[in-house]
């Protein structure tokens, strides 16, 4: 039976348009880190490398190798952790997108081992050469106690949603563990009308 994250993991990926608390367990990811404007060419290359790795795992049985514990599944959405160096933020809170520091990632199914992830990275790099492939890492990350909500519309309008999340934290005695936040992209910005774009925004709290 196919594992579809939209159906099986709604709490993690399909929150409502209001803040909610949850605890996110340890998960496995292909990740890549960088700095700069997400509208730039390098960011696009980073995304391409992550998707190539992710589909490499997904298609293994069709390429003649079925890993132990393999099950049919839908590839997970792109996620990103975003932050800034304090000196790059102006007094009014504004900043240049060129200064953004990010770690983008795509979650992988639980059956993946470190050895399998590295083997796949080698195979994909031969089939789909991309100089950014070598920067892809495989790691386990744990968001832990979090506050998240669904943001509908442009990325540039996210501050309005962050304001709601800040208010929720204040009312519920929560503080952010880090100024970094996570975004999970449920829609493809290249193919979706701006007002219909869906992004999960997540704070890491205590």
From TrEMBL:
This is GyrI-like domain-containing protein. Residues 18-199 form the GyrI-like small molecule binding domain.
């Amino acid at each position: 039976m196919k594992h579809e994250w939209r159906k099986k993991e709604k709490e993690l990926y399909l929150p409502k348009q209001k803040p909610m608390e949850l605890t996110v367990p340890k998960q496995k990811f292909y990740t890549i880190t960088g700095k700069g404007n997400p509208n730039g060419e390098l960011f696009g290359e980073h995304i391409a490398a992550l998707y190539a790795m992710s589909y490499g795992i997904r298609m293994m049985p069709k390429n003649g190798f079925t890993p132990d514990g393999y099950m049919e599944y839908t590839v997970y959405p792109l996620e990103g952790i975003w932050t800034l160096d304090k000196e790059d933020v102006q007094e009014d809170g504004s900043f240049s997108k060129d200064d953004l520091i990010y770690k983008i990632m795509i979650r992988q199914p639980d059956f993946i081992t470190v050895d399998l992830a590295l083997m796949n990275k080698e195979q994909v790099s031969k089939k789909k050469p991309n100089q950014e492939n070598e920067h892809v890492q495989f790691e386990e990350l744990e968001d832990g106690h979090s506050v998240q909500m669904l943001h509908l519309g442009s990325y540039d309008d996210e501050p309005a949603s962050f304001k709601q999340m800040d208010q929720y934290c204040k009312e519920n005695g929560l503080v952010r563990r880090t100024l970094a936040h996570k975004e999970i992209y449920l829609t493809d910005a290249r193919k979706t009308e701006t007002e219909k774009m869906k992004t999960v925004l997540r704070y890491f709290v205590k």
